[in-house]
Description:
By secondary structure, the chain is of the alpha+beta class. The chain is 18% helix and 26% strand.
Amino acid sequence: VEAVHLIADGKAPRIPQPKEGATYEGIQKKENAEISWDQPAAVLHNWIRGHDKVPGAWTTINGQVVTFYGSSLFDASVPAGQELAIKGASRPGLVTKNGLVVFGNDGKMVLVRNLQFEDGKMIPASKYFSSNETTALELTEEEKKMAEDIR
């Protein structure tokens, strides 16, 4: 009640907020979102999830910055997949049909569903090794004729 009366009378003390620590802007910088791999899976998941979408948690794979999106804890047996070396990780990740499985220092797993490359291209993590492949469109004779007619 006394505090309310001091405010109403205009006599409440005013303490200016210090400038240091007064904002969260420093957290939102891309350089502050690099993944530190020497942590348990739950911490890795929370780091990736906490930076999903802006600025995006990232790591280096094959010399390229890759940003991870859409993580979830993966509580099952280690799935079959193609190994992917990740800079700083004690164990390679696994590209599986469901996404990229990465390991915490506790041996538990995190599933990452989407990856974004430096050029802005985003792919499902399960397509990492097939992302550079291109398939040529093959036309039947009838379709070739139709294409010629259209030209």
